[in-house]
Amino acid sequence: MQLKDRVAIVTGAGQGIGAAVARAYAREGARVAVVDLNIESAQSVAAGINAAGGQAIAVACNVAIREQVDAMAKLVTQTWGRVDILVNNAGVTRTAMLHKMTQDQWQDVLSVHLSGSFNCLQAVVDGMIERRYGRIIYVTSAAGVLGTIGQINYSAAKAGILGMTKSTAKELARFNITANAIAPGAATPMTETIRTDERFKEKYLDRIPLGRWAEPQEVAPVFVFFASDASSYVTGQVIAADGGMTIH
Ligand SMILES: NC(=O)c1ccc[n+]([C@@H]2O[C@H](COP(=O)([O-])OP(=O)(O)OC[C@H]3O[C@@H](n4cnc5c(N)ncnc54)[C@H](O)[C@@H]3O)[C@@H](O)[C@H]2O)c1
Q1: Is 247 a domain residue?
Q2: Which residues lie closer than 8 Å to 25 by C-beta, 6 or more apart?
Q3: How far is the CA of 187 from the centre of ligand 1 (A)?
Q4: Using CB atoms within 10 A as the burial measure, which of 42, 129, 206, 216 is most buried?
Q5: Does residue 157 form part of some domain?
Q6: How confident is residue 106, by pLDDT bands cut at 50, 70 and 90?
């Protein structure tokens, strides 16, 4: 087991990629806080993990609200004594062409991805510094590298996460804390429209050299790698688990 007795927080773990990561971490022996805005889905993922012999708790939390993040981190620390691994996975899209995008659509996306990731990092980092151990995993996107039509907010947020990954890695390396990012591509509710709508379906598939979308469990092993001791000398890096979409 690669994560035996580690304590992990996975945000946005009620469905999609986050749920697959929470399950993969639990299978590797970690105790996992399944954190999500939607408590019912978080509870269902945590129950599945516990029924399979793993250890998980569900925590309701909006990562964009600092007080909720602090309460969530406190609960996890009280339950298991520490946090070793943070996966900043929670995300939303608010798609609109830029001339029609509202202030709320712009702000919502920046608040969840950028402020949410920052809030969670700050809430757990002191304990990691004290113990001289930590694994921070950010989730970026091909959108942050290549740009996307109708998603200037999301592309800006995901490009910002690349900067956060590198700054986190440089600033925390002296405390034996690594920070890396993953740019996934997976069949989840978030990508449903571009995977199923006839207007986008073929166009997007044509951009994926492997010719198909991944299942969320296919990208989870990269999250295990960045959380485990196998990546002890890897920091500030990005791995795209996207079927080759970002080859350039
Ligand atoms: N699916 C893809 O192909 C793809 C590609 C690139 C990047 N990503 C990124 O991967 C991550 C996971 O995406 P997914 O496809 O699994 O999405 P998803 O929509 O299936 O799941 C996202 C989860 O985050 C939760 N969430 C949303 N806002 C939250 C908040 N403020 N606080 C707490 N939880 C919140 C949702 O309730 C949901 O359970 C996101 O950061 C996304 O931007 C996904």
Answers
A1: no
A2: 3, 6, 8, 10, 32, 85, 223, 224, 227
A3: 11
A4: 42
A5: yes
A6: very high
pLDDT at position 187: 87
Question: Could you report the per-residue pLDDT of 138-187, keeping only the tens digit for each?
Answer: 999 999 999 999 999 999 999 999 999 999 999 999 999 999 999 999 88
The whole-number pLDDT of residue 248 equals 78
Helix (H/G/I), strand (E/B), else coil: 160: helix
With a 6 Å cutoff on the Cβ, whether 184 touches ligand 1 is yes
Give the mean pLDDT of 54-83.
98
Residue 2 domain-assigned (yes or no) = no
Verify whether ligand 1 is closer than 6 Å to residue 215 (CB atom): no
Cβ atoms of residues 124 and 83 within 8 Å:
yes
Residue 154 annotated as catalytic: yes
91 lines ligand 1 (CB under 6 A): yes
- Ligand 1 contact via 37 beta carbon (within 6 Å): yes
For the segment 9-17, the average pLDDT, to the nearest whole number, is 98
Domain of 135, in residue numbers = 7-241
What are the C-alpha distances in Å from 107 to residues 91, 93, 111, 112? Answer: 13, 11, 6, 9
**Count of domains observed in the chain:** 1
Give domain status of residue 173, yes or no.
Answer: yes
Give the position, in ligand 1's atom list, of the atom nearest the Cα of 143: 6
CATH number, domain of 108, equals 3.40.50.720
A 10 A CB-CB count for 2 gives: 17
